[in-house]
Specification:
Blueprint (H helix, E strand, L loop, with lengths): L11 E11 L5 E12 L2 E7 H4 L8 E12 L1 E7 L13 H14 L4 H17 L2 E7 L4 H14 L2 E4 L2 E2 L12 H15 L5 E7 L7 H13 L4 E6 L3 H10 L6 H6 L9 E4 L5 H10 L2 E4 L1 H6 L7 H6 L4 E3 L11 H14 L6 H15 L17 E4 L5 H6 L6 H11 L5 E5 L4
Parallel strand pairs: 1-4, 5-6, 6-7, 7-9, 8-9, 9-10, 10-11, 11-12, 12-13
Antiparallel strand pairs: 1-2, 2-3, 4-14, 14-15
Helix pairs in contact: 3-4, 5-6, 12-15, 13-15
Length: 429
C-alpha cells in the first residue's frame, strides 16, 4: 500500500565518469574523475568523485562510465524532419535540388501512414548521434507536424519546431493560403507550445516561397505572441538571393524582408547567412537574432563559405546545424569537422573548444533554451551524451600517447561519428 511519503521519493541516479561542460564561451570545465548526480531529471550536483561520493543517498543507483567522456547533449540548430530520404541526392544546387528531390518527398507527408514511421526514424537518427535538442523544419502538413510534436513529447525531448509555411513557388500540394497558414499555426501553437519540452516556432521556409501576405499573417501571430520564435533560411545561395530581390524589390536587403515583419530577436534562427551585407550583420547583432551555420549542406550544395569571424566580431549568437537532407550526416561531430574545414579555408581559428561549446551551451543559447539545457549547472535538465573516444582502432591508435583533453576533443571532432555515441540520456533516462 502506498503511503503519502512514498509519493515524495525522488528518482535519483549518479553517473560516474569524466565530464566536460561550459560555463560560457571561454570557460570549459573538465573533471577527469567526477560524479553527476541527477534527481527527478535535473542536475542536482556535478563534482569530483571524492567530493560528492559521501553526499549521495545510500541506495542511489550509480552508473559507472569510467573511461568514457560525458558532455551535455548535442544541439542541432537546423534540420529538416521531412528530408531524410533526400540525403545524398546527386548533382543540384539549392533551388534545383529543392524542386527535383525535396518538394516531391515532402508531399508524401500528407499521408500520416507515411509520416509516422519517417518521423520516428528521424528522431532515432538524431538520438543515436547524441543530439538531444533540435530546431526542426517539418512539412506544411498539420497532421505530420502534430506527429512530430507527439513523438518528441513521447520521447520527452526538447525541440523547437513549427509547420513550414509556403504559398508560392512550390508544388500545389505544398502550398497553403494566407488564412489557412494563420489558422493552422494558431491551432498548433494552442495544442503544443510549451507542452512538455516542446517549443513552437513560426517557420516560413524562406522568402521565395512566401508572399508578403503570408509573411504579414505570420507577423500578426508573432506580434500577439512575442515569445514565439521564428526560424527560416537567409542568404544561402547566390541564385536564391537574386530571386528574392526580384520578389521583394522594395526591401533594403534580404534580412529586411524578415525584419519588417518583426521576425528578428532573441531565439529566432536564420539558417546559413553566407552572403550578408554589412547592414545585415549590424541588424542581426542589434536584435541578437541567431545564425545557424550549416557547413555540410553549404559544401554539398556548393552554396559558399560562412564567415565565422564576422559572426564573432559582431557577437551574434551562433549554433551549428546538420541541415539534413542538404547536409550529409545527422552527426554533430561530423558537422563540427566540416565547420573546422570551412574556417580553415578562410584562415579562421576554430578549435575543439569552440566546436563543443557550439554543440552544447552555445547552441542552447542560440535557440534560447539555455535556461533549461546546455551545461551541467544545478537545476538544468539532465540531457547528456556518453562518448567513447576509442570506438575505432584508428582513434585508439591516434590517442594512445596523449592525455591532453584538448587534443582528445580535437581528434573526437575530426574523426568522430555515431560510433562514438555510447549512451544518450534525456532528463536522466
Amino acid at each position: 500500500m502506498c503511503t503519502e511519503d512514498s509519493y515524495m521519493v525522488k528518482q535519483s541516479i549518479a553517473i560516474k565518469s569524466s565530464f566536460i561542460h561550459f560555463l560560457n564561451e571561454t570557460n570549459m570545465v573538465f573533471i577527469p574523475k567526477g560524479i553527476l548526480w541527477v534527481e527527478d531529471g535535473k542536475v542536482k550536483a556535478l563534482a569530483p568523485e571524492d567530493e560528492l561520493i559521501l553526499q549521495l543517498p545510500k541506495n542511489i543507483k550509480i552508473q559507472d562510465y569510467t573511461g568514457k567522456l560525458v558532455l551535455p547533449g548535442f544541439v542541432d540548430g537546423h534540420v529538416h524532419a521531412v528530408q531524410t530520404q533526400a540525403i545524398a541526392s546527386y548533382g543540384k544546387q539549392l533551388l534545383d535540388w529543392l524542386e527535383t528531390y525535396t518538394f516531391p518527398l515532402e508531399q508524401r507527408f500528407e499521408d500520416p501512414s507515411f509520416a509516422l514511421p519517417a518521423i520516428q526514424f528521424f528522431f532515432n537518427q538524431l538520438l543515436k548521434n547524441g543530439t538531444t535538442t533540435a530546431a526542426i523544419f517539418p512539412s506544411k502538413h498539420v497532421d505530420a507536424t502534430a506527429i512530430l510534436f507527439k513523438e518528441a513529447l513521447r520521447l520527452n525531448m526538447r525541440i523547437v519546431a513549427g509547420k513550414t509555411s509556403m504559398d508560392r513557388n512550390a508544388p500545389e500540394g505544398l502550398c497553403d493560403t494566407t488564412s489557412m497558414s494563420f489558422q493552422e499555426n494558431e491551432a498548433l501553437i494552442e495544442e503544443f507550445n510549451q507542452k512538455g519540452r516542446l517549443n513552437y516556432a513560426l517557420t516560413p521556409r524562406f522568402a521565395i516561397t512566401s508572399t508578403d501576405e503570408q509573411l504579414s499573417a505570420l507577423s500578426k501571430i508573432k506580434k500577439n505572441r512575442p515569445n514565439i520564435a521564428v526560424q527560416t533560411h537567409l542568404s544561402e545561395n547566390i541564385d536564391e538571393i537574386e530571386t528574392t530581390k526580384k520578389l521583394f524589390p522594395s526591401s533594403k536587403n534580404y534580412l529586411d524582408i524578415y525584419d519588417s515583419k518583426g521576425f528578428l530577436g532573441k531565439g529566432s534562427l536564420m539558417a546559413h547567412a553566407i552572403y550578408l551585407e554589412e547592414q545585415e550583420w549590424e541588424r542581426l547583432a542589434e536584435t541578437q537574432t541567431s545564425i545557424v551555420h550549416c557547413p555540410t549542406s553549404n559544401l554539398f550544395l556548393g552554396s559558399g563559405l560562412f564567415n565565422m569571424k564576422k559572426c564573432r566580431d559582431y557577437n551574434i549568437p551562433l549554433a551549428l546545424g546538420s541541415d539534413v537532407g542538404g547536409g550529409l550526416s545527422f552527426s554533430m561531430l561530423k558537422t563540427a569537422a566540416e565547420a573546422y574545414k570551412i574556417a580553415a579555408l578562410q584562415n579562421i581559428e576554430f578549435t575543439a573548444r569552440n566546436a563543443f561549446y557550439l554543440l552544447t551551451l552555445g547552441g542552447a543559447k542560440a535557440l534560447n533554451q539555455d535556461a533549461y539545457i546546455g551545461n551541467f549547472e544545478v537545476g538544468k535538465e539532465a540531457d547528456f551524451v556518453v562518448l567513447d573516444t576509442g570506438s575505432t582502432e584508428l582513434m585508439q591508435k591516434r590517442l594512445s600517447n596523449t592525455d591532453d583533453i584538448d587534443e582528445i576533443l580535437f581528434v573526437l571532432m575530426m574523426l568522430g561519428d555515431e560510433r562514438n555515441i555510447h549512451s544518450v540520456y534525456l532528463k536522466g533516462k
